[in-house]
Amino acid sequence: MSFTGYKNLELLTEIKKYTDFEYDGQSAKIPYFMSNNGIYGGKKTVSEIKKYISANKGSERLQSFIDSHKPQCGIDCSGFCYNTLNEATDGKLKRFLRETADTTDVTDLRSKSTKITTIEDIRPNDFIIFNGDNHVAIIYEVRYSSLEDGISKPWQIKYAHSSGGKGPHFGYIVLNSNKLKGYFETIKDFLYSKSI
User: Fold this and answer.
1) How far apart are CA 30 and CA 91, in angstroms?
2) What is the pLDDT of residues 100-133, one digit of tens each?
3) How many C-alpha atoms does 75 have within 13 Å on its Cβ side?
4) Is the pLDDT of residue 192 over 50?
């Protein structure tokens, strides 16, 4: 059997708590929210979001409530990456960074990480920093294929992030070379995990 890659199932489980959010038997989409104009938010764990809903939701539909309480129920890219990785590693990210999600942003995640120089070094739990260093995603799977010479090479990176109108969702990158600069051939983003 040939080597097919690396996958972090614990991380994927934590990611799906956001992408396939459920509360009291109902599904809802967690929106993207980034602090702005003095309105702070976008850093809550799924448990904290559920606790807020439990304490404050009245008779309105779940999705309507969540959409009207984005600072308390939404998540930004760094909060999403921080919370999913921290939960999947039983708090190791918090101990390593010595910061909480509330005080962590893309700059912190980038500055306290080791830069990867070859695609063979990419692993689940690694961050992808893009969009002019203003956005972060987290890798949960790296798929490999065997070449004719028997050597395995990475060909696909699966990641998750929270952005703009989509909130938490999945995507993947199809690799076309061994270089990290200009490395991708195709980037695909999906709104729900059921798409992957």
Assistant:
1) 23
2) 888 888 888 888 888 887 778 888 998 888 777 7
3) 31
4) no
Write out the two tokens for 79.
Answer: 């909060």
Neighbours of 175 (CB within 10 A): 20
Residue found under tokens 């010595």: 98
Which residues have a Cβ under 8 Å from the Cβ of 123 and sit 6 or more positions away? 6, 139, 142
Alpha-carbon gap, residue 23 to 112, rounded angstroms: 34
The Cα 138–Cα 43 span in angstroms is 15
DSSP state letters, 104-152: --HHHHHHTSPPP-SGGG--TT-EEEETTTTEEEEEEEEEEEE-TTS-E
User: How far is Cα 154 from Cα 184, in angstroms, rounded to an integer?
Assistant: 12
CA 120 to chain centre: 21
How far is 10 from 183, CA to CA, in rounded Å? 27
Categorise residue 92: left if φ over 0, alpha if ψ from -120 to 50, beta otherwise.
alpha
